[in-house]
Amino acid sequence: MLRFLLALAWMAAATLAQAQSCVPRYQFVLADGTRGCLTALPLADERLPGWSSSVRQLAPASGSYALASSPRAPACPRALGLAGTVMPLSLASTTTALRAESALAECRRALAAATPPAPVAGTDCDCRLLIADGVSPLSADEFRAHLSSEAPAVAAAPSPPVGVADPAPVAAGPAPASTPPPVEPAAPAVTAAELDAVRQQLAQLQAQMRAQTAVQRGERAPTAGPRLQARALVIGNGRYAHLGALPNPGPDAEAMAAKLRGFGIEVDLVLDADRNALVQALATYQQRAVGADVNILFYAGHGLQVGGVNYIVPVDMRGDGATVGSVRLTGVSLEDMLEYLPAKTRIVFLDACRDNPVARSLVATRSVAGVGLAPVQGTTGTLISYATKDGAVAEDGRGRHSPYTEALLAHLDLPLDIAVVLRRVREAVMSATGNRQQPWEYGSLVGDELVLSRLAR
């Protein structure tokens, strides 16, 4: 037993020393908390066809890159995908999930061009995501097995003394709270389901890493408080009959509802609501939310301002011949919507600042309408977060989610007060949009810090 404990201590020291000697741009962490170094992997010095430098040399200094590979088993053709600032496409401002998707796609193209051709996707030789922006969805054992023919260990740590059983990998830092399942691509093309799975896994791991970093930097962790009753109303309007369809609001709302339910929060999900359905959903929610400590409203879809009043746009609003009066009759004002949230504490996320033909028409007629949403007066106990500043237009995004919602999904897991989380969201959106979009908040919360990920736990 003493010999085994000494071996474990020796292994931990070796792993820590290796992690400390690894250049930060090459460091990564696996799903079980084990640390690795890109330069210690056999694939680090491989070259892609037509590329003059190795994978290690091409990894950008920002650390924003993704690697995908088929298993290194002798029976499998070797294929490697790399995505980052070095790709021909401008991927420097894209998200982690898109870099992961690009790496998987490059890997599959390499497999398809291999001689002999690679087996079909879904087999033991199919590509898997290895690293994306310093995080791997695989555990140390899975990583080791994937590179089994050439890599006996994840990193170049010394072997344990002869006669000592192979100890479990020792993390250089605290292990994440949970281990996401490994990514298993199921089709040759990158599907929306696969991209969502990659995004959720990486977002969870990144949130755990940020939380660990916050603790290491001495940031105060939220104190445990009583379990609060929370309920959320999540609305996604994308299938507009007269204004043109929006691709993101439906998936945005569904993903946000799943995220909040994962926190133990009860959610009413409403998709593509006309005015009657929207009013009915608000009335039903008000009845169900009686007694709740916290109400959360998330809306994705069209919104506009008329005379300084913000309106949510139902899917049956007409754009041709729109007037100030027609908007007031067919839209639902944000102020009225807040009346249906009975809790003393209310959190509102509005991804509703998109460009729309109704607002353009009203502005062209020099009416009292304006671009984007209008600023709102701060209400005690209410925090309202816009996808972008008042008077500005938010981007729809090129992926499955808008930049704002994608940033929310990636950061709400953080065990930090919502005010801090929204600052991280602002930073992420500005980075993803090249500073073209800057989320903004209005209102004033009172009381202790509010951590959504632990709200109902």
Describe the structure.
By secondary structure, this protein is an alpha/beta fold. Helices cover 32% and strands 15% of the residues. The protein contains twelve helices and 15 strands. The strands form four sheets. A six-stranded mixed beta sheet has the order 7-6-8-12-14-15, with helices on both faces. Strands 11-10-9-13 form a four-stranded antiparallel beta sheet. Helix 3 crosses helix 5, helix 6 runs parallel beside helix 11 and helix 11 crosses helix 12. The chain is elongated. The N terminus is likely disordered.
Give me the secondary-structure topology:
Elements: H1 2-21, E1 27-29, E2 35-37, H2 55-58, E3 65-69, E4 80-84, H3 96-112, E5 128-132, H4 140-146, H5 192-216, E6 230-236, H6 249-262, E7 266-271, H7 275-288, E8 294-300, E9 303-306, E10 309-312, H8 324-330, E11 332-333, H9 334-338, E12 345-351, H10 357-364, E13 369-370, E14 382-386, H11 403-411, H12 418-432, E15 440-444
Parallel strand pairs: 6-7, 6-8, 8-12, 12-14
Antiparallel strand pairs: 1-2, 3-4, 3-5, 9-10, 9-13, 10-11, 14-15
State the gist of this model.
By secondary structure, this protein is an alpha/beta fold. 32% of the residues lie in helices and 15% in strands.
If strands are numbered along the chain, what order do they take across the biggest sheet?
A: 7-6-8-12-14-15
The main β sheet shows up as: 6 strands, mixed
Give the terminus-to-terminus CA distance. 40 Å
**What is the general shape?**
elongated
Radius of gyration, taken over Cα atoms and rounded to an integer in Å: 25 Å
